Amino acid sequence: MYRQCTYAELEPSLKIVMTLLVRDEQDILRENLDFHLSRGVDFIIVTDNLSRDSTPAILDEYRRRGVVRVLHEPQDDYMQTAWVTRMARLAATEHGADWVINSDADEFWFPDIPGASLKDVFASSAAAVAAVSVARVNFPVVPTSLPLSAPFFERLTLRDTQSIQAAGKPLPPKVAHRANPLIEVDQGNHAVRCDGAVVDCGAVPLTILHFPIRSYAQFHNKIQLGGAAYARNTKLKRSVGATWRILYQALLDGRLPEEFRRLNPDDGEVDAQVSSGRLQHDVRLRDALRLIRESSGRLQ
What we know:
- There is one protein chain.
- Residues 1-12 have low confidence and may be disordered.
- Helix 6 crosses helix 7 (242-252).
- The protein is an alpha/beta fold.
- It has a single domain (16-213, 281-296), classed as Spore Coat Polysaccharide Biosynthesis Protein SpsA, Chain A.
- The protein starts with 15 loop residues before the first strand and ends with a helix.
- The protein is globular and about 50 Å long.
- The strands form 4 sheets. The chain has a 6-stranded mixed β-sheet with strand order 3-2-1-4-9-6, with helices on both faces. A 3-stranded mixed β-sheet has the order 5-13-7. It has a 3-stranded antiparallel β-sheet with strand order 10-11-12.
- It contains 10 helices and 14 strands.
C-alpha cells in the first residue's frame, strides 16, 4: 500500500503518541504514565509482556480513562524490535500521531527548557528532521534515610554525569521519530529505519532521566526475566542486548549482588563522587511528580 517513506506534515495541533514495552513495572509505571501525559503526550500504546505484578491492573485503569491502549504479548523471547515497531506503526496508522516516542517505563523524557512541554520541544524541530536522538542519564541507587518502600523518585535524586552501561560503555541515546507507517524500530529503541536504511537524527532540547535500578529486588527480577528471555531468543545476534546478557550471566554465577554494588555507589563513594561532580543533585523529576500528586491525588 505504501510505496515510499513519507512523514506526517507538522500540524499546529501536534499530536504525540508514546509507546511502552513493560513487564512487572508496578513501582514506576503509574509515575511514567502520569508524567508524560502531563508534559504533552496525548496517548500511550503499551505492550504488556507477561507481567505478573499489578502492572495489568494499573494499565486497565488508564485504558478505562481513554489515554492508553494495551496490547498483550505472550511470547517470552524479548523480540523488542518487532513489538515496538508494531506499536510505532499503530501510532501512525490508527492514532493520528505526528511524533512517536518509543520509551521504556524507567525513562522520563524531560524538556531541558524550564516550563516547556514535549509539544514545544518537538515543534521546534525543523520540518526536514525525521527523527531525533536524545541522551540518557542514570540515577543510581544511593544510601538514603528513606525506606525502600518510599517512591523511587523520592529516594533517587543524584544524577550520574558519566552514565555508563554494565559493560562500561557510555549509555547510548534513544530515538523518537515523526510518525511513519513504514517505520522500523531497532532493538533497544536506539535507532529507527525506513526501507532498511537508518534514519538520520537531529537534536532537540530534551534529556531522558533514566532509573533502570530502583532496588535490589526489582533489579534481580528484571535481570532474571529479561536475561532469560534474551537467552532463549534464537533470532538476535549475541551482540544484541549485551548489557542484559552480562548481568544475566552474573545472576547465573551468583555474582548479581556484586554487580548491583558495582553499579551503585556506597556511602563513601557517594560523598567522593558528589565532591568531584560525578554525581549531581537533580530533583526535577521528584518535584514534577510531587506537583502531579498534589494537584490530582495520583501517585499515592
